């Protein structure tokens, strides 16, 4: 069962139940459309839910609009939407996912859990600029390309939150050849060699 201890964040039983629904639907749909690696499903509470939930604890406040890029199976987008429905219900959440089957999955989870969020079944670079307070993306692209996606959809004073694996230092060096930005790396709560990069003041060199 999902619990606040599992997530590393204090939430209600109703929120835990919604996250359980998300995982149940993920397991049901995954064989058909490969939302996540099958090997990660057994430990999905840690590998996917907690890994996504930590982004909410790092987000600035107050929030008006959170945009998740390449949302896929809903990590972190759906998790963010479910958590913010309790913690910051005034914040809008938008997920951009170009794969129409995955976008259908995202909308199904939103409908089943009763969460209000928007799903745009469009390419990130073609969707209208979203002017978001926070842009997130997980396992989507190397950081230089990710920052190009983020700049399109981020408010000038907004924050990017990007989980990265142990090669994050090299990605940071590569990105600084093309971009100017501030960066605070936060050690991941699920993997001591991984981080969440908190990016601000983004500008192209």
Automatic annotation (TrEMBL):
Keyword Flavoprotein: no
A single MF term (Gene Ontology): rRNA (guanine-N7-)-methyltransferase activity
One Pfam family recorded for the sequence: GidB
Gene3D superfamilies: Vaccinia Virus protein VP39
Enzymatic class: transferase
EC number(s) on file: 2.1.1.170
Residues spanning the signal sequence: none
Purpose: Specifically methylates the N7 position of guanine in position 527 of 16S rRNA.
Protein name per Swiss-Prot or TrEMBL: Ribosomal RNA small subunit methyltransferase G
The organism of origin for this protein: Maliponia aquimaris
